[in-house]
Amino acid sequence: MRQFNAWIEKLSLACAVLAGALLAASILVIAWMVAYRAMGYQNSWELETSIDMMVAAVFLGSPYTLRTKGHVGMELLEAVLSDRGRCKLAVFGHLVGLFVCLYLAWAGSNMTIEAYHSGERSLGVWQALLWPRYAAMPVGMILTALQYLVEIQKTLGSGWAPLAKRGKR
Fold it and tell me: pTM of the full predicted structure?
């Protein structure tokens, strides 16, 4: 189990690096677009591409955000609960998050497969294929669901001290 946890956490870190690279590339594309249009030229692909990269970065960065406890927490409620209550609350929250991620991965997979088989394209001038755009959702949500499994195992396996980890205890 430790190897699985280590592998998922390394994968989460790799996805975070990829998400950061996508955000940087998106910024460069937007800057290029502004400069190119300031010279009086026009293109049709930059805005759509930069939006696609930003959306993919959000989904691919999600597992790392969970790993580093960057998602929304209930610190006020955690502060008044006992250690056992905090553990139960964390496991419940992780299970809800896990099932939401699995549902979104399933729905996103259906959407991606349907767009792939139909050859669906965007409505813009560029008319890019939509399945690569849609694929970021199931990939990111599957990886986030795997990170939720790791977080549940950590919570149950090593005790629960979220406030101590954050330096508030």
Answer: 0.85
